[in-house]
Write a structure and sequence with these properties.
- This protein folds into three domains: 30-108, no CATH class; 115-226, Band 7 domain (Tetrahydropterin Synthase, Chain A, 2-Layer Sandwich); 227-286.
- The chain has helices at 32-51, 55-69, 145-150, 155-173, 190-205, 224-263, 271-286, and strands at 30-31, 72-75, 79-85, 88-93, 97-100, 106-111, 115-118, 122-125, 131-142, 210-222.
- The longest helix is centred in the last third of the chain and has 40 residues, at 224-263.
- The chain is α+β, with helices and mostly antiparallel strands and 301 residues long.
Length: 301
């Protein structure tokens, strides 16, 4: 089993996307209020020319005002507007407010807000071949609008599919539980597992202009068909660990009792009596139920 501590940021089998990646750049945009005042001037001039029966000039100014009107757009907080002109990317407007740009351009709104989703519960095999159920919460946001718009078909669907792929790959690399206490596991090292998942997702999603802020397992359990057997195994391990502690404590108490009896000269015990006393004390100290004392009214022999 691979050690997470030795290389918690390793990512396997994340093939880069071929081709030239898009690069976000700032779009041309004028403040909307001055452009709106110019539009009002054009409208007034159009009406004046039509009243003066200068129809040709009035129609031309009216067409210009109509075209100018389609160039206004608004950018809300934590949103961006991706602008294209006849199929060519011309830039992205991230500033919040009211703007005007080339009226022949097309504009697509894109959210820059932080998003999260809880993946579906996946049934996969861990490194030991045991079927397990696993799910994760992914927190992400768009950081490059050009890549998110042009380099992938649907960036939200791309995030969901890549998150599922990375989660399946991660689950297959480590065991559900480290029964031998020799390394790392999905259940025993949640922080290391989360770090490895964030790193792998970050590499997979960078081609879509997406940044992964956090990724943590939200569900981890054995599959129903082996859950009972694994629960018995865990219970047996817990019982053995508890028994080991009880026996160690009982041996220490017996040793202390024999030493104090000898040092304080309360009673002199030969080896046979010491063995009998040790046996009785261990039974009393390690028994799960209360012991019933037996009083000897006669000789010790």
């Amino acid at each position: 089993m691979t050690n997470l501590q030795s290389d918690p940021n390793r990512v396997l089998d994340a093939t880069p996307v071929q081709g030239v990646a898009s690069v976000e750049r700032r779009a041309f945009g004028l403040p909307g209020i001055p452009a709106l005042l110019i539009l009002l001037v054009l409208v007034v001039a159009t009406v004046t020319l039509l009243v003066a029966e200068l129809y040709i000039w009035g129609v031309l100014l009216g067409i210009a005002a109509f075209l100018m009107l389609s160039g206004f757009f608004i950018v809300q907080p934590n949103q961006a507007s991706v602008i294209t002109l006849f199929g060519r990317y011309v830039g992205t407007e991230r500033r919040n407010g009211f703007f005007w740009t080339n009226p022949f351009t097309s504009r697509r709104r894109l959210s820059l807000r932080i998003r999260n989703f809880n993946s579906e519960r996946l049934k996969v095999n861990d490194a030991g071949g045991n079927p397990i159920e696993i799910a994760a919460v992914i927190v992400w946001r768009v950081v490059d609008t050009a890549r998110a718009t042009f380099d992938v078909e649907e960036y939200e669907q791309f995030v969901h599919i890549q998150a599922e792929t990375a989660l399946r790959h991660l689950a297959s690399q480590y065991s559900y539980d480290d029964h031998e206490a020799t390394g790392f596991s999905l259940r025993g090292n949640p922080d290391e597992v989360a770090g490895a998942l964030v790193t792998e997702l970050g590499l997979r999603l960078q081609h879509a202009g997406v940044e992964v802020l956090e990724a943590r397992l939200s569900h981890l359990a054995y599959a129903p068909e082996i859950a009972g057997a694994m629960l018995q195994r865990q219970q047996a391990g817990a019982i053995l660990a508890a028994r080991q502690i009880i026996v160690q404590g009982a041996v220490g108490m017996v040793e202390m009792a024999l030493r104090q009896l000898s040092e304080q000269h309360i009673v002199e015990l030969d080896e046979e009596r010491k063995a009998q006393m040790v046996s009785n004390l261990l039974v009393v100290l390690t028994s799960e139920r209360g012991t019933q004392p037996v009083l000897n009214a006669g000789s010790l022999y």
